[in-house]
Specification:
It comes from Polyangium fumosum. This protein has helices at 3-9, 14-20, and strands at residues 31-33, 36-40, 54-55, 60-62, 68-72, 82-88, 95-101, 112-119, 128-132, 145-149, 152-156, 166-172, 176-183, 191-196, 206-213, 226-237. It is mainly beta. The chain has 2 helices and 16 strands. It has a single domain (68-237), classed as Jelly Rolls (Sandwich).
């Protein structure tokens, strides 16, 4: 029995359940959060991309403050660390996308990747990303932030002054994709990327957020679940 079913069976109201937890996508249900409806990616016991990783619908929940929590954890104690992903039920395209990330970027495990991105399973995938990831090494000055219109990407180190929450924005037009990331603590300069002539959206393009492990490998030194907290996201069509 999943978390939602268990809480309902004990008499907890549906309103309360939906305010705190979510429903696995393999039950064909969606959950509301931050102005959008979302499905969860659940691959059962099968590793799938990205990574590949095993994705669990139980590794996402929304707290009483309406913050989204995404986990990577060995939830069954079987040595398999299960990642998390949510997928918007509506199609998206040109417009403005924002994410306010509560978890400090510099606190991420070296193998963890957070993606905030557009995607389609068709054609060229229409993948535009903001990622927190260490794809180019794990040294103290190695990049931790990625802006990309695949296959073109820009990797940036994150200053030590980025010690708290951060704000990330993508403005996607026919002419260009403009990415802006900035700290919400202190006065460090924002990080900005402009990519001209970006991919065009497809009718099947959606918005996704995922939290996963590079190469699907067990996170070195981790003794407890990895977690990321997101305050909010938004999508405003052009």
């Amino acid at each position: 029995m999943n978390r939602i079913s268990n809480m309902l069976s004990t008499g907890v109201s549906a309103t309360l359940v939906l305010s705190t937890l979510v429903i696995p996508v393999n039950e064909a249900n969606a959950f509301p959060w931050s102005g959008l409806e979302w499905n969860l990616k659940d691959s059962g016991e099968v590793p799938v991309g990205p990574g590949p990783n095993v994705f669990s619908g139980d590794n996402v929940f929304v707290d009483a403050q309406n913050r989204l929590h995404m986990l990577i954890e060995d939830e069954d104690g079987d040595g398999v660390w299960r990642s998390s992903e949510i997928i918007s039920t509506r199609a998206v395209g040109y417009g403005t996308y924002t994410m306010t990330l509560e978890t400090p970027i510099r606190s991420f495990h070296n193998q963890a990747v957070l993606g905030f991105f557009t995607w389609s399973n068709e054609g060229n995938n229409t993948e535009l990303d903001v990622e927190v990831a260490r794809f180019q090494g794990t040294g103290p000055n190695a990049p931790r932030l990625v802006h990309s219109v695949q296959p073109q990407s820009s990797h940036y180190p994150v200053p030590t002054t980025w010690s708290g929450a951060s704000f990330h924005q993508l403005v996607w037009t026919r002419q260009r994709a403009t990415f802006t990331s900035r700290t919400l603590v202190g006065a460090a300069a924002p990080i900005q990327t402009v990519i001209n002539n970006p991919l065009r959206p497809l009718r099947s393009t959606n918005l996704r957020i995922n939290f996963w492990l590079r190469a699907g490998a067990v996170p070195a030194g981790a003794t407890s679940p990895l977690e990321v907290i997101i305050r909010s996201v938004s999508y405003t069509p052009a």
